[in-house]
Protein: 3-sulfinopropanoyl-CoA desulfinase
Organism: Marinobacter salsuginis
Amino acid sequence: MLEREDYEEFRKAVRRLAETKIQPYAADVDEKKRFPEEALAAFKELQLVALPFDERVGGQSGDVLAQSICLEEIARVCATSSLTLMVIWAGLGPIASFGSPQLIEEVMKPAINGDTVASICLTEIHGGSDVWGARTRAQYQDGQWVINGQKRYITNASRSDWYSVLARTGEDSFGVFAVHKSDPGLSFGKLESKMGVRGSPTADVIFEDCRVEDYRLLGDSKEGRQYITDSLAYTRPLIGAQALGIAQGALDAAIKYVKEREVFGQQVARFQMIRGTIADLATEIEAARQLLYRSCQAVENKEPEARTLASMAKLFCSNVAMKVATESVQLHGGAGYLTDFPVERMMRDAKITQIYEGTSEIQKLIVAKAMLSD
Ligand SMILES: Cc1cc2nc3c(=O)[nH]c(=O)nc-3n(C[C@H](O)[C@H](O)[C@H](O)COP(=O)(O)OP(=O)(O)OC[C@H]3O[C@@H](n4cnc5c(N)ncnc54)[C@H](O)[C@@H]3O)c2cc1C
């Protein structure tokens, strides 16, 4: 781990970038439901796409805490942009960890420069919370893998260059495959219309006799389950970080508003009830931050309780995000209900953090199982 001052320097640099290069477009990205191209260009300035990856593949070896701080600061101004970056990391992750030297050369070099968009394809109609209910199959034929199936709700779909795809390779075994957007047999469903994170494209990814060369298999064809289980323990704190950033952004906006707005001849910020709400929300955010950073440390050090802490952090931070964003709308009065103020968008964006990468109910199942040792 780095020194505390190093993380704070890094936070300041990302915040500066987020406020100057991403925030100005956040409302437009949401309103027009368009991909945050400005954010993608901004990520290049600090080489943020390279942050989580090993120096071996050209990355910066930034630890989970640094990644969380990065996503937290971006989500503070634009949840769509933080999701875009997080999913690029999640899509490239299995390739960087388990890809053959040929694949790493082909994929990671342009990716590290920030020129590549990626997706992670786990969810299916029959396998959302039940990831292992997935029916997409990969069969080995004449030196190639032939993939058939349909993935649902895939972030960055149709915009991504590379797709890391979980597919069944046997009755009870899974593999993970790198599929390129130009591979024959790959197509996309309609773009989903969503409540929040509207600039982030979400669509089905469809595989019809999609053939990929053997070198696109990531690692062992029967170890995909383990690879994905490990990677979810690592990505869950990152969703927690996204949620925390949304909460902080909403509270910051609410504080600004209550200091400016006058009612009954005084600043809204002078009313005792309002001050109590601000104090409660700030306290919850700080509690969420401490749990999140503790889970980052556990994941980084591969501590035995890392998976449980990651689920706790995701569960708690997403609940705090939903509560803080809703209360921040309330603190704005009628203005909070208008799209002129960012808290309306933040409240819609907060909701998804309780759903994706395992719903709150699934996080509770994981935590309860660890507590009850059953
Ligand atoms: C905007 C968006 C982006 C996404 N991006 C991606 C992506 O990039 N890649 C990807 O693979 N997936 C992605 N997802 C999918 C997401 O991870 C799933 O939607 C999520 O895991 C829930 O699965 P489901 O939708 O099938 O819900 P379901 O499993 O149908 O759940 C329905 C309800 O039942 C509850 N439930 C389910 N099982 C249990 C249980 N055992 N006990 C108690 N309650 C239970 C759930 O908590 C929920 O309340 C995305 C989804 C959205 C909406």
